[in-house]
Every structure is written in structure tokens, then in C-alpha cells.
Amino acid sequence: MPxxxxxxxxxxTGDGRAGGRAVTDDGLLDVTLAVPTALGGPGGATxxxxxxxxxxxxxxxxxxxxxxxxxxxxxxxxxxxxxxxxLPTEAGGWALHAALKVRIGGGVxxxxxxxxxxxxxxxxxxxxxxxxxxxxxLSTSTSATxxx
Length: 148
Prior knowledge:
Elements: E1 10-13, E2 21-24, E3 30-32, H1 48-70, E4 78-88, E5 94-104, H2 110-123, H3 125-130, E6 136-142
Parallel strand pairs: 5-6
Antiparallel strand pairs: 1-2, 2-3, 4-5
């Protein structure tokens, strides 16, 4: 294995998603966890799926900007929305499904936007890590203005 460029460290304590706490080693992330109301919990705090969605959307957005820069495409405005769904499995456990919704503004042609999204999915570390394990739906939209 190559030498890591960076290693993120987080520790979860307490009751996990049911009132536990997750903290990074540098203290910049310190969150209380709660089961969402949609799953019969009290809500009122974040949950692992939201944290995963935040990480994947920001990582994918960085990958999108990287591939656009490499192809000399200026992204005037772009957004990435990650929707992480928790699904029951036949074995009585849980599985994830991801929908990544990319929107690119500034008049980028739809075919170029689609190509950028596909290329970002090839290099984003979250996409690479989940490939073959988490079903992913990609969608790309564009707008003529600078507002995405």
C-alpha cells in the first residue's frame, strides 16, 4: 500500500447512532448522534447517513472541480447533492443506496457536464471506495446562468 497522503481519525462512543458521540482527533468535528424520526427515533441530532452524505457530496464536488480543471472547463457554479438512503436487507440488516445529483451552471453544455460527472465518479475517493458495494444513481443537470 502506498504511503497515505492524509488519515482522518474519528472515534465513536456511547450508544452509537442512538445518542452516542463522534469526535475527530483534532476536535473540529464533535457531534451527538440520534436515530432520525423517520426510523422511529427522537431526531434532533445528526446521524451516520447524514455525515456520509456530507462527506461524499463535498469529496465528489472536489473531484468534479479537479476533472473540470484538468479538461480546462471553467465551472462558474456547481453543486453536488448526495442522498444516502438506508434500506432493509433480506437478512434483516441494512444497506445503503446513494443518489448523487450534480448541477452545473454557467452554460456548460449538457454532454460536457455529463462527461465531467462520470469522470468525477471515477476519481472521487468515496465513489472508488463504494464501487461494487453501494448502488449509485448519478444525475447531471445544467443551467445557462451562473446560478446552479
